[in-house]
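explain this chain.
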Amino acid sequence: METGPSIPMQPLHPADVALYQDLFSLFFFLQSVRKALMSVGYVWEDLYTRHNMGEYHPESPLRLKAVKNVIDDVKVAPFLTRLIPKPATKEELSWVHDGHYIDRIESTSGKFEDLDPDTSTCPATWDAALLAAGGVIACVDYVMEEKYSHGAFAFVRPPGHHAERTHAMGFCFFNNIAIGTEHAINKYGLKRVAVLDFDVHHGNGTQNHFYNRGDVLFASVHRHPFYPGTGDAIETGKGLGKGLNINVPLNGGGGDEEFRAAWDNILAKVEGFKPELIMVSAGFDAHVEDPLGGMKLTTGAYRRLASKLVLLSKKVCGGRLVLVLEGGYSLSALRSCVKAVLEEMI
């Protein structure tokens, strides 16, 4: 088979080589600028997947693997910055939890133990729980110290908002979001922080920790009556915290409209509080696909709330917004909701 005459390759002129080098340098510089100006921080660690309460337990390592699929998506990944957390120290845990309780959880390291009917440890739980709390701390540091951050999302487990000062419950060991909030107050001297919770289950541990405080506004929209049995509208805080604890209970089977109306009312109050940081317990178990929640929210409801949270954070606190993963037990719903939230943040 005959081929045509070969065309000799001409060497590039040195000026052309220099031009291409300059263009490549400019491209990578612009990429770095874009990332710096548009980056959402996140925490995700393999250790979180090694906490395992059993093959059929709904709070499964598969949840974090589903999230990993989202943060690796080529349409999302360029706008994310991975943060490397350190394990929380016992001193940091003690801001929220009793010392004897911390020692009790440490004593389960390397062991399988049942702490309540639905919360148990495995050999990796202690280490994972320390790194979960540390993951929220890392996200707080990121939004407080990075001038151009677009917020942060702590994809951690075990979750935390049910954990009380002296005991584990509801799949939770240490109250990650409360520890992160205390870190923000202690390290950065913040005077006002809003802690919001949209998990289908009321964040009893978080509410109880801040119930008497005047520097933290806690607000939750959740199904009620439902586990854990707290979160009635009459629970409004005590002492300096009177009026700063807001609960909006929703009936089972509620959908997007009830959720939207509840949060519109709450966010108006949050704006009036003028927080210097907004922390969010992000549970996606009120989604219509969730096997535990008994609610009918769509992914669009979470997208709309995320958009409003981003706008509010930019308006009142320079975009300082930290989301912390709590519940959400349908893997497909978890993927779609996390993707929707991240798309609004970036």
Q: What stands out?
A: DSSP finds ten helices and ten strands in the chain.
